[in-house]
């Protein structure tokens, strides 16, 4: 890269003379690469320097180019140069760098080498460090083996005995990152949006999903259109999901999500798929005093009224003839998609004809009907009786 191009890139941004303190996070522009040094414009009067090894992939290739913007931490000023890092932990880092990272709150990178009493052994720049179970993750560690042999980012929370006693916290770093992500989410997240997330925890009442800095809850009622008895039947920990934001309450840190709203509503096509008179297989999902509910598919239940059960005999409760979990062959009697109602009858149900009630006709008689007379005759008769 020519000196002229380097100068143009470096001067392209207005220089700020603000004072940097060790541990400050800044956004920098890559303005040059020379050997193992990456030169940065951080808006200060002098350039910054970053080790190229921090930004190489597994194949040893640089992952940045001049003009790219990256997040870095100010480490120290040495020999007129400002030293920056994305995180410490390379083999070139020594006790001095780790102590500076502790003092300035700069993250370090380490490899989890094994499980020990109370936590994990972590190798950071050749130093054996310790991370307690409670500090390994923002969530409770349920399976220690899933962290082994992984490269993770930590904060040094204790530094003692000249680097022989170093205690790390991955949780502290994660909490800082989540706070930054949370602020970014607050600016762009709205109710009704569909977002991607990862299932982080399964509970009896629902599933928690990380949607990028915050966890939201999918209540068990929002997992599917049909009744769900166990969250594990629908989701698993670590699963990628698409969800809809139902409610946001940033003050109480409560976000309600829905998986069901990303799925097709089965009632939208119920009329065409369940025409009147068609026969279907179903399973009795629950019993009520007035009938049995039969699941035709997830999200579609029909009612088999008690009056249609009993094959002609009167019953007092559906349990006398059917039970929950029983497979039944049923016929569609009526469908009301707007009310989400389907009336069912047994496959062999035949409506009984109601007998016609005949009007009672009295038998014929030869006697003439006796007249009670007129009102005047009745009054005259009463007066005669009184005399």
Q: Short summary of the structure?
A:
This protein has five helices and 20 strands. It starts with a helix and ends with a helix.
Descriptive notes:
With 387 residues, this protein is mainly beta. It has 5 helices and 20 strands. The strands form 4 sheets. The protein has a 5-stranded mixed β-barrel. Strands 8-7-6-9-10 form a 5-stranded antiparallel beta sheet. A 5-stranded antiparallel beta sheet has the order 13-12-11-14-15, with no helix packed on it. Strand 2 and strand 3 form a beta hairpin.
Lay out the secondary structure.
Elements: H1 3-11, E1 25-34, E2 37-41, E3 48-51, E4 69-78, E5 81-85, H2 95-104, E6 108-116, E7 119-124, E8 127-132, E9 151-160, E10 165-169, H3 170-188, E11 194-203, E12 206-210, E13 215-219, E14 240-249, E15 254-258, H4 270-273, E16 279-288, E17 291-297, E18 300-305, E19 327-336, E20 341-346, H5 375-386
Parallel strand pairs: 3-5, 18-20
Antiparallel strand pairs: 1-2, 1-4, 2-3, 4-5, 6-7, 6-9, 7-8, 9-10, 11-12, 11-14, 12-13, 14-15, 16-17, 16-19, 17-18, 19-20
> Helix tally?
5
Global mean pLDDT: 82
Q: What's the main sheet like?
A: 5 strands, mixed, barrel
CATH class assignment of the largest domain = Mainly Beta
The CATH architecture of the largest domain can be given as Beta Barrel
Structural class: mainly beta
């Amino acid at each position: 890269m020519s000196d002229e191009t380097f100068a143009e890139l470096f001067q392209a941004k207005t220089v700020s003379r603000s004072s940097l303190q060790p541990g400050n996070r800044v956004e920098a522009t890559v303005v040059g690469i020379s050997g193992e040094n990456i030169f940065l414009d951080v808006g200060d009067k002098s350039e910054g320097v970053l080790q190229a090894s921090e930004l190489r992939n597994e194949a040893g290739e640089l992952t940045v180019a001049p003009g790219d913007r990256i997040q870095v931490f100010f480490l120290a000023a040495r020999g007129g140069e400002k030293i920056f890092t994305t995180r410490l932990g390379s083999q070139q880092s020594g006790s001095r760098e780790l102590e500076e990272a502790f003092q300035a709150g700069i993250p370090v990178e380490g490899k989890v080498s094994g499980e020990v009493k109370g936590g994990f052994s972590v190798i950071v720049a050749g130093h054996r460090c310790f991370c307690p179970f409670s500090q390994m993750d923002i969530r409770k560690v349920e399976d220690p083996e899933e962290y082994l042999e992984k490269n993770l980012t930590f904060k040094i929370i204790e530094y003692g005995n000249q680097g022989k006693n170093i205690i790390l916290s991955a949780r502290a770093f994660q909490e800082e990152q989540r706070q930054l992500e949370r602020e970014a989410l607050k600016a762009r997240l709205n109710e009704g949006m569909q977002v991607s997330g990862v299932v982080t925890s399964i509970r009896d009442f629902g599933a928690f999903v990380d949607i990028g800095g915050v966890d939201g809850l999918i209540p068990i009622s929002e997992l599917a259109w049909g009744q769900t008895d166990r969250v594990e039947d629908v989701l698993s920990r670590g699963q990628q999901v698409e969800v809809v934001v139902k409610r946001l309450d940033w003050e109480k840190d409560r976000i309600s999500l829905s998986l069901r709203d990303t799925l097709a509503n089965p009632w939208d096509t119920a009329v065409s798929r369940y025409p009147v008179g068609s026969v279907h297989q179903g399973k009795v999902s629950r019993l009520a005093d007035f009938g049995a509910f039969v699941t035709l598919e997830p999200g579609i239940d029909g009612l088999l009224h008690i009056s249609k059960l009993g094959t002609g005999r009167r019953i007092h409760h559906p349990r006398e003839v059917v039970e929950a979990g029983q497979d039944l062959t049923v016929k569609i009697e009526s469908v009301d998609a707007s009310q989400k109602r389907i009336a069912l009858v047994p496959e062999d149900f035949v409506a009984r004809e109601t007998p016609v009630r005949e009007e009672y006709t009295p038998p014929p008689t030869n006697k003439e009907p006796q007249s009670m007379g007129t009102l005047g005759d009745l009054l005259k008769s009463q007066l005669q009786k009184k005399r």
